[in-house]
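User: Reviewer 2 asked us to show a designed sequence for the structure in our supplementary figure. I'm pasting the C-alpha cells here. Could you produce the per-position amino acids so we can include them in the response letter?
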C-alpha cells in the first residue's frame, strides 16, 4: 500500500534492507525542487551515494549537503568536467554524475509562473529532458528514471522515445512522478473528512496536468455533496495553480514536489532492496486505457515497475471526467513523441 507519509529519516540504526548500496542522481539539483529533494535524499538510509548535477551551482549544493551527518557520500557535478566539482579534485560532468546510478530523478527545467500551464513549459523542458535522458542511455541504461520535469504527460514519452532510439528502453524503468497528486488528494480529503492525511490513500489516475488528473474520491468512502465532490476534484487537479498564484511569481510547487519526489525515490529503493508490497502511483507505459502512458497504482520490485495495477470501478461522475481526460492525455503524449521524432 502506498503512503505519502514521510518515511523515518536519518535513522541511526540502519536496517539490513537499507544497507544495500544505492546511488541516486538528481539532475537539476541546484533548482527549487532539486535542492530540497537532494537534502531529503541525503537523509535517507537507502541512499549510499548522492550525485547532484545541474548547469550551475552544484559543487556548492553538494558541499553544503555533504555536511549533513548521514552515511551517504555526496558528489556535485557541472556539465563541463573541467569546470570544478565536489569534492574538490573529483571528476565532473554528466558521465561522472550518472555512472553507476540506480535511480535518476529529473526535476530539471524552468518552473511555472502565474498564467503559465505545464504545456507552456514544453519547448524548454522537452529539450532539457531529451538531452539528460540521452546521457542516461549512455551512462546508466539500467537505472530507474523518475521524471518530474513538466509537462510530465509529454516528457515521459520523450524519454521513452530517446531510450528506444538508443536500444535501451525498458518500460519497467521509465516513470513519471505523480506522487504529489496523491499527496494533495490525501491532504485535502483529510481536511474534508477530519482525518490525518497519513491514514488516507486516495487513488489518483490519468496524467499529471489539470483535467488529466483524476482522483477517485468515491473509493475513500467519504460522504460529500455534489458541490463538495466537484470542489475537491478541481482543487486536486489544479493544486499546482494554487501554489503558483500564492507565490505571486516567485516560483511554483517546489517544496511539496521535492517531498513527493523523495517519497517516490525512497519507495523505489525499498523495492530494489527487496522489500515487498511497495505499491504507489506512477505515470508509465500502460495498456489499461487507450492512452499509451497512464498513471495508476503500480507494484514495484527489484527492477522497477513489476506490475501495472487496475484502478477499480468508476462512478458516473468520475467516468465523465475520464472521458474528458483521455483525448487530452493522448494529445499530450503524441506531442512528446512528435518532439522526440524531430
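Assistant: Here is a per-position design you can include in the supplement:
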Amino acid at each position: 500500500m502506498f503512503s505519502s507519509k514521510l518515511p523515518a529519516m536519518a535513522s541511526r540504526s540502519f536496517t539490513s534492507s537499507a544497507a544495500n548500496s544505492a546511488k541516486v542522481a538528481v539532475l537539476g539539483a541546484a533548482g527549487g525542487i532539486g535542492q530540497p529533494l537532494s537534502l531529503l535524499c541525503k537523509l535517507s538510509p537507502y541512499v549510499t551515494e548522492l550525485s547532484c548535477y545541474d548547469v550551475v551551482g552544484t559543487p556548492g549544493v553538494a558541499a553544503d549537503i555533504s555536511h549533513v551527518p548521514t552515511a551517504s557520500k555526496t558528489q556535485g557535478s557541472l556539465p563541463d568536467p573541467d569546470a570544478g566539482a565536489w569534492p574538490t579534485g573529483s571528476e565532473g560532468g554528466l558521465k561522472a554524475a550518472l555512472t553507476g546510478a540506480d535511480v535518476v530523478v529529473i526535476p530539471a527545467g524552468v518552473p511555472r509562473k502565474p498564467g503559465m500551464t505545464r504545456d507552456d513549459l514544453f519547448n524548454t523542458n522537452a529539450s532539457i529532458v531529451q538531452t539528460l535522458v540521452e546521457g542516461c542511455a549512455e551512462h546508466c541504461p539500467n537505472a530507474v528514471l523518475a521524471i518530474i520535469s513538466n509537462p510530465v504527460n509529454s516528457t515521459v514519452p520523450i524519454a521513452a522515445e530517446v531510450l528506444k532510439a538508443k536500444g535501451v528502453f525498458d518500460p519497467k524503468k521509465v516513470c513519471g512522478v505523480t506522487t504529489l497528486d496523491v499527496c494533495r488528494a490525501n491532504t485535502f480529503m483529510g481536511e474534508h473528512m477530519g482525518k490525518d492525511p497519513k491514514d488516507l490513500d486516495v487513488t489518483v489516475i490519468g496524467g499529471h496536468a489539470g483535467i488529466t488528473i483524476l482522483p477517485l474520491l468515491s473509493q475513500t468512502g467519504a460522504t460529500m455533496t455534489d458541490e463538495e465532490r466537484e470542489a475537491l476534484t478541481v482543487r486536486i487537479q489544479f493544486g499546482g495553480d494554487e501554489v503558483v498564484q500564492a507565490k505571486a511569481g516567485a516560483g511554483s510547487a517546489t517544496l511539496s514536489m521535492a517531498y513527493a519526489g523523495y517519497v517516490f525515490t525512497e519507495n523505489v529503493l525499498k523495492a530494489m532492496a527487496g522489500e515487498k508490497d511497495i505499491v504507489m502511483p506512477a505515470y508509465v507505459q500502460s495498456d489499461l486505457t487507450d492512452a499509451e502512458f497512464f498513471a495508476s497504482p503500480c507494484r514495484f520490485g527489484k527492477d522497477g515497475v513489476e506490475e501495472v495495477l487496475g484502478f477499480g470501478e468508476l462512478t458516473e461522475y468520475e467516468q465523465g471526467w475520464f472521458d474528458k481526460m483521455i483525448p487530452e492525455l493522448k494529445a499530450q503524449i503524441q506531442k512528446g513523441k512528435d518532439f522526440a521524432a524531430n
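For the response letter, you might also mention the following. The longest helix spans residues 316-341. The chain has a mean pLDDT of 93.
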